[in-house]
Design goal:
- It is built from two helices and eleven strands, in the order H-E-E-H-E-E-E-E-E-E-E-E-E.
- It has 148 residues and is mostly beta strands.
- The longest helix is centred in the first third of the chain and has 14 residues.
- The two termini are 31 Å apart.
């Protein structure tokens, strides 16, 4: 995953016009942050021509580690997470609810399209990890399930 983030950082910096001082990318729990000191150099001058050693980049958990015994329902797309089908309606799931495989647990809105988020496995909801109306990233954990 870190190698993929490094590749995306180099590509992003190469595509930007003007000097780049800092880049931060996130994929799941991995965060890649690169900062160049001395500024003023054009973007092409700071893009490594060959892959840089991993030691130059730091990866740190952005959130607490997920419990190994919990299944996570993850965001299928970048967008805005909604817990209920419409404003004022009851949420799809709440802590303590039993969920069956394929059951809708939320919606992620992207470009005015509502994408249902369904559980791949069954289990009991132990935590809803995203707030209603919160922006979410691809593959971000939204709901934690324990086997039932």
């Amino acid at each position: 995953m870190l190698a993929g983030l490094r590749r995306h950082a180099r590509q992003l910096v190469a595509e930007l016009a003007g000097p780049v001082r800092r880049v931060r990318l996130r994929s799941g729990e991995t965060v890649l942050e690169v900062e160049w000191h001395g500024g003023g150099a054009p973007a092409e001058a700071v893009v490594p021509q060959r892959p840089a050693p991993v030691e130059q980049f730091t990866a740190e958990p952005a959130e607490p580690a997920e419990p190994a015994d919990h299944a996570m329902v993850r965001a299928p797309i970048v967008g805005t997470f909604y817990r209920s089908p419409e404003p004022g309606a009851a949420p799809f799931v709440a802590v303590g609810d039993l969920v069956r495989p394929g059951q809708v647990v939320g919606i992620v809105e992207a470009m005015k399209l509502m994408n249902e988020v369904a559980a791949e496995r069954g289990g009991r909801v132990v935590a809803v990890l995203a707030d209603d109306g919160q922006p979410v990233e691809y593959d971000q954990p939204l709901v934690a399930l324990e086997p039932a």
